[in-house]
């Protein structure tokens, strides 16, 4: 089978779970992750495995890199083995002492209907056999379960990342399309500006004016409203955003910075537009970009 070498961004949202059996125990690992600026790891680990917490944390941090991560490791035991055991030898000792106590006090009615309940409440009468040392064999099983859960979470992140990448490409394409749709209004805008100024001079102010001087002033005014540089820079940012996505995971912060630069160019275009239709297009571009900014926070 051909190996897939496609590199893609990853989401910080993920879920992974794995389990394995060791003796009479079922070992379970569950990992959840959400977006975060850095690695924020919280753990809940069964007492037997807490001596390995640092190693577990290193495994999780190295593989997941970033995100708010909740890690849980717990044990399930079969009911027959997890039930508390009665310490029969101790119960016999308590029973003999209670018999002697009854005779010494002259109660004369021991044992009675309350004797069993009393015995079961005596200190240490109920005990559970707990393993107090973790064997290398068991730890190897636990380590494999942790690695499997991490792998499942990474796969989940890749799937979410693919969905994000598709969404980003749609939004980038929309901004690119909107940017091109501005062009017809740029020529129209120049004509309208000239007509508005000359109409004001001729009809409203009713004064004679130097047409050559007016043309020079118009050129200066229109140059200040020129958005060719903003359009070119925005186009470059759109391409750079695509290239950065294609470079793989771990690019979330960089994509965020590029999105900020895109916003600057769109805002400047809006402030220079001086045309209703162009301003409407800028509003649409801002809406598309805002959706990118919301989702880019979840990118690794």
In short:
This protein is an alpha+beta fold and 300 residues long. It is built from ten helices and six strands, in the order βββαβαβααβαααααα. It folds into three domains: 91 residues, 2-Layer Sandwich (Ribosomal Protein S5, domain 2); 43 residues, no CATH class; 139 residues.
Overview of the molecule:
The protein has helices at residues 53-64, 79-82, 88-105, 115-120, 136-181, 183-205, 211-224, 228-246, 252-273, 276-296, and strands at residues 14-22, 25-34, 39-45, 67-77, 85-86, 126-127. The chain is of the alpha+beta class and 300 residues long. The protein folds into three domains: 14-81 and 134-156, 2-Layer Sandwich (Ribosomal Protein S5, domain 2); 85-127, no CATH class; 158-296. The strands form two sheets. The chain has a four-stranded mixed sheet with strand order 1-2-4-3. It is rod-shaped, with a radius of gyration of 37 Å.
Largest sheet strand order: 1-2-4-3
What letter string, H or E per element, gives the SSE order? EEEHEHEHHEHHHHHH
Which term fits the overall shape? rod-shaped
Number of domains: 3
Helix content class: 55-70%
